Each structure stands twice: as structure tokens, then as C-alpha cells.
Amino acid sequence: MASKNMTTIMALFLTFNLVFLGFTSAQPLCPLNQSDLGICVNVLGLINLTTSNVAQCCSILSGLNAPLVSVCACEAIRLNVLNLLGITVNLNLRLNGLLGLCRLPIQPGFTCLA
User: Domain Hydrophobic seed protein spans what residues (predicted)?
Assistant: First the structure.
């Protein structure tokens, strides 16, 4: 009898887990390729920094919908030459700086992870 009760409890437990925990939302992927993001990498790394590079980067990012702006900007930060050299940077600080430079909003609750 105890075995039947335990089986029922386990079945209910697994059903609730599948129903309530199966609806997690994943972070969207950036639709831009590395060459598009390369302009923003130049802006972040202060390599070939010109007003046209800043304008091009901001133009690329402003063409995206709000959730993707933060994702793509974060991707550009990850591609940054300074990060490749092993220099530790605060990714969220850089994200705020880039989006602030472009006057674009940051997605609420978004965290740029390494």
C-alpha cells in the first residue's frame, strides 16, 4: 500500500515539475554577425574610434527591438579586443556605457554574463 502512495506522489511531483518549470524563457540570440558587431567592438576597444564608427554602431543597435539591443551589445563587449587580451572588465558597466553612448535603453533586469 505504501508503495502505491509513493508512486502516486512521485507521479504528481514530476507532473507539477514538467508543467510549472518547463516554461522558462531563454535569453534571445543576437541576429547580427561578427562583422556587424565589429564596428561596435571598435567603439568599445577605442580602436579606430571615429564619430562615423560610433554612429554606425548606434545605427546597427537602434535597428533592433529592445530585448535584442542589450543582447547584441553584450555580445559585442564579449568580442572586444580588451577582453581577448585577458583584461578584466565589468561587462555591465561597459554595456551601460555603450548603450548610454547610443542613447538606447537597457532591458530591465538584463545582466551581461561573460
Answer: 30-112
Q: List, for residues 17-45, the tens digit of each pLDDT value.
A: 666 666 655 667 888 888 888 788 777 76
Measured torsion, CA atoms of residues 86, 90, 93, 99, in degrees rounded to the nearest 10: 40
Overall residue count recorded for the chain in this entry = 114
**pTM for this prediction:** 0.62
Terminal Cα distance for the chain, rounded: 52
Collapse the DSSP code of 13 into the 3-class scheme (helix H, G, I; strand E, B; otherwise coil) and give the result.
Answer: helix
How many Å is the Cα radius of gyration of the chain?
21
| Burial (Cβ within 10 Å: 0-12, 13-18, ≥19) of residue 37 | buried
